[in-house]
Each structure stands twice: as C-alpha cells, then as structure tokens.
Amino acid sequence: MLRRHLLLVGGLAWGGSAAALAQAPKASPDDPESSPMWHKLRQQLFEGRSIQMDARISLQAPRRAEDPAFVPLAIHVAPGATPADDIRRLTLLIDNNPTPIAAVVDLPAGGAMADLETRVRVDEYTFVRAVAETADGRVLMATRFVKASGGCSAPAGGDEAAMRAAMGRMLFRLEGAAPTAAGQAMTVQWMVSHPNHSGMAMNQLTRTFTPSEYVRKLHIYQGDRLLLAADVDFALSENPSLRFRFVPQGNAPLRAEVVDTFERRYSAQAALDSLAR
Fold first, then answer.
1. Is 41 helix (H, G, I), strand (E, B) or coil?
2. What Cα–Cα distance (Å) separates residue 47 from each residue in 41, 115, 138, 139?
3. 206-247 pLDDT, tens per residue?
4. Using only C-alpha atoms, what is the Rg of the chain?
5. Sign of the torsion angle spanned by Cα atoms 245, 247, 253, 255
6. Alpha-carbon gap, residue 5 to 176, rounded angstroms
7. Taking a C-beta distance cutoff of 8 angstroms, is the pair 146, 112 a contact?
8. Strands (DSSP E) found in the chain
9. Helix, strand, coil proportions of the chain in percent (round to 5)?
10. Distance between CA atoms of 121 and 203, rounded to whole angstroms?
11. Domain ranges of the chain
12. If you average pLDDT over residues 99-128, what whole number do you get?
C-alpha cells in the first residue's frame, strides 16, 4: 500500500516538479487546507472522499521541535459507539517531507486500538496529519503545524559500527500498570535497532551521502492474532519505535516481525509477564 502511494507522490517530492512545488504558495500555519501537497495527497490517497475534522481524533506534536530528527507524535481516536465506528486504518502524513506518507497502519478487528505514539523526522515547516478511516468508510482527520527543519538530512546520532552490530534487536516494554482483569488494555512500547538511513544525510568524513536503508514493514502479533500491520518510510526516526495499546487475550507472547529496504527480516517475541520495564 505505502510503496504504491509513494510511487504516486514520489515525482511530486523528488522529481522535476520539485521546483514547481518550491515556487508554489506556502501553507499558512492557520489553515490546513492551504498546503499544496495536501491537495495532491488527498486526491491520490482518498479519491475525493469527504474528510471530517473531528474532535474524536487528536494529534499531539510539538509546535516547535527540539530535535527535527526525533519529533514525538501521538495519535488517539476515541472509541466509537458501534462496530461501524471502529478505526481500521491510520495514515500519518507529513506534507513537506521528501516522501510525505510517513506510515499507513492497518488495525484489524480485535487488534490494537487507534492509540499510537512514535518519533519522526521533519524536514521543513509543515502540517502533520493523522487520518483515520472507520470500518464503514468514513474519514476523520486531525492536523498540527510543526516548526522543524533538516530532520531528514540529519546525520545518524550513533556509531555506525555499533548500530550495525545491534541491527534487528528489539525491545518490548510495558508502559504503566499491567492489566489486573480480563478486558483491560495494556500499553506497550516497541523498538527495533536500525539506523533507518534516509539517503539524504552526508557522511562528514567521506563527504558522500549515506545510502538509504530503513524499515519498510512491521507486523505485531499476540500469539497468532494480528494486532497491527504497518507500511512505514524513512520518516520514522533512527531506531524506530511505536507505543500501542491492546486488550490481551490469554497469555500468548507478543511477537514483532520487521522487513527493511534490503529485504532483511527480523523477528522477536516477549512473554507478557516478562516485559522489560
């Protein structure tokens, strides 16, 4: 899904029309509809469907990022009244990033809740959008204007050799209290060691660009039950992480499976009663 959409918008971000976009009117921080890229994304991703700015969905992000390579984002959609209101897909867009589709997260019935946190790269002042699609096809959106620049071209923060030695290692960590009764949700922080190179950062010693190399797909399960499936892009920060909530069913362990741009596959699992704190 994400790869197909990136092919659609890639020419807008990287190709010959980049100059045209640079000359286009800049978005007003007070008007989410003033973004030229958003109008292209809206048509290509949602094909003219009505999109509601709805209080049910919230997007938290700093107005001005302390570090453009590690911008924290939190998306929350309040539970609906009926199964038709359940969120089945969350799309995270960063309008002015080189590739604006940061993540597409599918949430199967009975899986993870529409309550996610992560860290992203932001390359220039931009609207960030969380777009939620319900089971019956409605589309809800929340936006935030973030002031940051240079996040996609920032050099890696750690030693490259050490990062490669640790590549693929994963951590599951319980956030808050463990459930004490059936039907209660638990919150888990997941992280994978991966440099997530964007391809835009220059090595200061060799004066060459570090080739792109990043996580593309993520699946998280409890036992055989799929909690979420995500197509992601280099917009996710170095050592990609995701905080998610779900209601456990039994004591089956959590398992994460990751695929990166070199088709390397990593997996790890953790018993619920032994999550690191």
1. helix
2. 9, 25, 13, 11
3. 778 889 999 999 999 999 999 999 999 999 999 999 999 999
4. 19
5. negative
6. 36
7. no
8. 51-53, 57-60, 71-77, 87-94, 101-106, 115-120, 126-134, 139-146, 170-175, 186-192, 215-222, 225-232, 241-246, 254-260, 265-270
9. 15, 40, 45
10. 18
11. 2-274
12. 97
pLDDT given at position 14: 37
Whether the per-residue pLDDT at 15 is higher than 60: the answer is no
CATH code of domain 2-274: 2.60.40.2470
Cα gap 141→3, rounded to integer Å: 22
Mean pLDDT (the chain) is 89
Structure tokens at 23: 């000359």
Nearest to 59 by CA among 135, 125, 116: 116
Residues 6+ apart with CB under 8 A from 33: 39
Task: Give yes or no for residue 60 having a pLDDT over 50.
Answer: yes
CA nearest to 234, candidates 204, 262, 190, 195: 195
Question: Would you mind telling me the total number of residues written for the chain in this entry?
Answer: 277
pLDDT digits (tens, 9 = 90+) for 124-134: 999 999 999 99
What is the structure's pLDDT at 161? 83
Question: Which amino acid is located at 62 in the chain?
Answer: P
Segments in 28-93 forming alpha helices (H):
36-46
